[in-house]
Amino acid sequence: MTEAFIHPDAVIGVGCSIGRFAVIHAGVVLGDGVQVGDHAVIHAGTCIGAGTRVGAHAVLGGDPLANRRVRRKPKAVGPLRIGAGAAIGCGAVVLAGTEVADGVLIGDLASVREGVVIGEDAVIGRAAMIELNTRIGQRVVVQTGAYITGDSVLEDDVFIGPAVATANDKYMGLSPVVYRGPYVERGARVGSHATLLPGVRIGAGAVVGAGAVVTRDVPAGAVVVGVPARPVARWDTVPDAPAHAARMQDVPARKEQARKEIIPDVPAEGGEA
């Protein structure tokens, strides 16, 4: 029976659990109480904070790939860093050069490219795709199957619905361009199956309706719908919107309390490795 491979140069913290057939490469650092699922692969130099869970068949810290057709060739990147109390789903792939903060959830089969920064308590849903050099703020939710193109910015508390699509190249590969993904300001929400075209800016607290195609900037607080998206209301005039906004003020504190309750204390010594 073949068990896990752990490189002699890897540093394994107290109370870690390593699944069967997992591969831990040289220079990996696992904080105390990290759980690594069966068949997971953690590439050289990856650092994972205490209490983080890595699902079966996840692949963490690998280098980006390219062929002759790819215009943006991979550059040298540093190791992948994942904070404490995070959860990485089964079959998820997170490349080197990315920083994942404390308490982040990356769902099953999600993919995160190099050069991405993900803030505390963000959620990257099942099978979502986050392309290179994207910045994702704290408490952002990117739901199932969403595609966040490279060079995008999602500020704190943004909500991205299922199957949202974004773009950063308005010429679709026909000529050299400066890539500009969408910029979504704090607290904005984008409904399922909406499309954000290259370089559009969604203002703070704005709402993009399901299925909308956003071709130009959306003012802060506006509600836009349709193809192409047009303003139809202000969010502050929508019934129950103020009450919802007030409830959101408590979210960081409630999430922090919940995290303290679900992350177990790590034993001071001993434990399985």
From TrEMBL:
Lineage of the organism: Bacteria, Bacillati, Bacillota, Bacilli, Bacillales
Annotated Basic and acidic residues bias: 252-263
Cross-referenced InterPro entries: Hexapep, Hexapep_transf_CS, Trans_hexapeptide_repeat, Trimer_LpxA-like_sf
Signal peptide start-end: none
Pfam family, one: Hexapep
Region described as Disordered: spans on this chain: 247-273
Entry's Gene Ontology molecular function annotations: transferase activity
Keyword Repeat: yes
Official protein name in the record: Transferase
PROSITE patterns: HEXAPEP_TRANSFERASES
Keyword Transferase appears in the UniProt entry: yes
Keywords: Repeat, Transferase
